[in-house]
Fold this protein.
Amino acid sequence: MTSGTTNGNATLTITRPDDWHLHLRDDDLMAAVLPWTTRCFARAVIMPNLKPPVTTAAAAAAYYERILDALHPDVDFTPLMTLYLTDAMKPAEIERAKAQGFVVAAKLYPAGATTNSEAGVTDLRRARPLFEALAACGLPLLVHGEVTDPDVDVFDREAVFIERHLRLLLDDVPDLKVVLEHVTTRQAVAFVEQGPPTLAATITAHHLLLNRGAMFQGGLNPHLYCLPVLKREEHRQALVAAATGGSPRFFLGTDSAPHARTAKESGCGCAGIFSAPVAIEVYASVFEQAGALDRLEGFCGRHGPLFYGLPFNRGTLTLERRPFRVPAVVPAGTAGDLVPLAAGSSLDWSLVQPAARLVRED
Ligand code: NCD
Ligand code: ZN
């Protein structure tokens, strides 16, 4: 990491970061959102909750090809693919996916927990052969850690998942690498900090930036509704402490999850925040406010590769302390308009985009 100044503004140059949790979608929507990720991130872990979900090695390969086809030929970006676990999946599917080389993890959605999770796992105990297959081939399990029990309050679903399921899962398959995705509570932070070295967590930009009050500020803000839902201020502060504290167990995962404006501003708005257009700028602002800019590089570009056993990126990314006006709307062609996180507001850090740095160097 190097600091400097350009035109009197502070600059920060870090190893080019990765996004360890991204919803890239498909078709026109993918084409529209992909440049917002590739402008910044060198690699991203691509979530498999398409319709239909990516439940086979062959489907992961086809999706991988569609992403490569959608990339501008000069852009240096590597999609890291995932497999969506189901009750019906056989361990051999995991071995087939691993053998392809570009599948880096499997995703556990408790059935019904979030967007397009209906085909997910209904009983974690029955999925144990899948977890063992993952451990045997060294692929991490990425967990959407919320119970689906309707008797559990929506704000408590993560903490209850940890107690009811995650503890048992880690005990049952101790060799399995597990990422608790998009942690939102102080309970999750404490659990990850005290857990085995095989356990890590991603943290989103929006959960670092906002508490649940933001959803109701001046009226109901559907664009701030996501799952796991935003939590109280005490939890946000625990997340900031975890992200900025330097522990390699926490790393960047935006969970950028675009939905058309009409699907968000609806009688039953769907869950997901489109943060790719502002994510790195928000992370930089949060780290600066915490007095921890020197730890931004570890969180964004080191801890993830260390956990996944992948090399660090060779390129760099430069941020500048100059106001960044967030677009109010991002058009997505036939997929409709998208409203990004922090739409219409101004952030403290901007991306300096030397196009040459974002294209292949080999
Ligand atoms: C995600 C989506 O829209 O696919 N939504 C969200 O609120 N985060 C699914 C998910 O990651 O839970
Ligand atoms: Zn997600």
About this structure: The pocket of zinc ion (ligand 2) is lined by residues 21, 23, 47, 255, 257 (CB under 6 Å). Residues 13-351 form a domain with the TIM Barrel fold (CATH 3.20.20.140).
